[in-house]
Amino acid sequence: MRGIMRKWFSSLLVLLFCLIPNAFAAGLPDLGDVGVDDLSPAKERQMGEEIMREVRQDPSVIDDPVVAEYISRLGRRLVAASAEPGRAFEFFVVKDAMLNAFAFPGGYIGVHTGLILAAQSESELAGVLGHEIGHVTQRHIAQLIGKQKQLTWMTLASILAGLAAKNPQVSEAVIVSGVAGATQAQLGYSRDFEREADRIGLQTLESAGFDARGMAAFFERLQRNSRLYENSAPAYMRTHPLTTERIADMENRVMSMRYRQVPDSPDFGYVRARLRVQSMPAVEAVRLFAGQIEGSPNNAALRYGLAYAQLKQGRLEEAAHTADAMRRWAAFSPLVAGLSAEIAMARHDTDSAIKTLTAAYRDFPDRMSLVYALADAQIAGGQAAEAEKTVRRALSGHGNDARLWGLLAHANANLGHRSAQYRAQSEVYVLQGAWRAALEQLELARRAGDGDFYEMSAIDARLREIRKRSVEEKWRDPPRKLR
Hints:
3% strand; 483 residues; 25 helices
């Protein structure tokens, strides 16, 4: 998380220079007039995009497609039920045991693995995401900026960086470096903002079909246990101040809503089991899940966790046996099929993995984690041509997916299609904002010259387009000089 903080801070400095053309000529400009109307949604999105280009490269951001896809699907379900269903959002997971979730400008919402594991139901987790969605749709970050008087660009960067700090020490250091202690009171959302985000979050939660009690229950449990934390309370409680009045207000609102019992989706249990395994040594995870299964032998999530832990420990035959047994009686799930394929790949049984993934993808064509796994298995199994077809089909609806472009580059490399390989790799760099690297790949693609007329024409056109964009966005071409 500290890496994310450093990258976020440097990104903000660069972006703010871009948003303030006379920054160098005028020294430290005064942004006292910057309000919610001045920081337009487009500028907020631009700020968020700049931050995320760096954040995506941080090793603490979960790269596991299964976990990333789950949180994205959950977030999109909530956004679809919100007051702004057409607004662009992106959800991501940070590997961190602290209980925290945060929103970057422009609709980028991060959640810590510790918070996912602490949630006792899917509705509780959805409640936290709904609350963060409320902060974004109500433009609370822009309002925080607008309320500041005599705000320099350094102060702005410090406040925003502090909002996602992992612990009090990091948060304090960021603030002090920017404006001494003068803006510490601005760290975190105001009580009015919190109440508004609660109201929006509850409405979104109910509209999305979740149990609205989950949101109040999670926050109440946080408040009840806060005395155990003393001076190291969860980051979420520091940036989202909890009060008795807030809890009471949530509970009163829930009382007026229709009562409903909402079972957790199987994916919620599987993802939590997966994260639990990733948070500890494999041998301990095997012992943990094996012991829990003795008390709940029919719990599919525990079986998933045991199979995944056995895979991580290298006990492949036992992992295959556990997964096969679970698949015979548990409800069919793309996550269960994906785990079976992971185990098959570890056993070098690519044929079984491809067969399992092909069947699962046929039933769940919207699950990108299955596409990634299937293409990987096809490439490993010597079916690069099939992998290329698999990826190109998926790209037709997910053209901004860097992982897909990377797989396409890999498949074409195996096929010996150099122009197509370099062209695909250039798109990976474009999505990372690395314009110079993208240009280099396109130059290689043009020199390779093994594409047909249409492909070479497309490469030339893309080269001209990226050259233009690289000039326009030269400030934000990684690697940064401010690191």
